[in-house]
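Hello again, I could really use a second opinion on something today. I've been staring at a protein lately and its backbone has me curious. Please have a think about how the structure follows from the sequence. I owe you a coffee for this, so here goes:
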Amino acid sequence: MWWRKKYPKLSTRQNLIQGYVVLGVTFLITIVLLIFYFNIATTLDEIDKKGVQTQALVIKNEPERGKANRFHITYRFTVPVKNGASQTYEREAIVDKNSSIQLPVGAVAQVKYLPQSPDSFRLLNVSGDDYGLLVVQIFLAANTFLQILTIVYIVFFHRAG
């Protein structure tokens, strides 16, 4: 067969074990990524359903290095806490160019946060603020592709010998 000329004999026990180890590691990575993904998605869903809306002041708006269509904006918002006091948060977000134009320095942006956990929040009415979910989805896709290659390696080359 054609692959026997190109590749060394791959049906040894060591190569099979290597394939299973790679498959196991990629499976564990998938589990961690899925937990991370569902944690983010659940938090965003909870913010949408139970969040309290407030206003934030845009204090910085700069283009992201090397990315003409993405901008870092920094904004500040204040939330009430126990005993009538307040807590101020300053956060950054990556937004697309259209949202950046709508949010110059000094503009008021809308933020939604969870009252029981003001560290959980999201900037409203902007596009490009869900890059965290996109990054996790890309890593999941790449990891799934690696798993498929590993399965092909185990099945195809192990039986080739």
Observations:
- The mean pLDDT is 79.
- The chain is about 50% helix and 30% strand.
- Residues 83 and 102 are 36 Å apart (CA to CA).
- The longest strand covers residues 52-63.
